[in-house]
Amino acid sequence: MLKKIIVVAIFVTITGLLVFGAVNRSLAKVNGESESLSESIYGAIVVKTDDDLPTGKNDSSPEVETSHSDEVIYLPPASKNGLSDSEVSGLLYMREEEKLAHDVYAIFYSLYETQNFQNISQSELTHTEVIKTLIDRYGLTDPASGKMGVFTNPDLQVLYNDLIPPGGQSFAEVLKVGVAIEEVDILDLQEYLAQTDNEDLQTVYKNLLLGSENHLRAFVSRYSTEAGEIYTPQYLSLEAFQAIINAGTQVGGGYQGEGGGNGGNRGNRP
Question: DSSP label at 49?
Answer without folding.
Answer: -
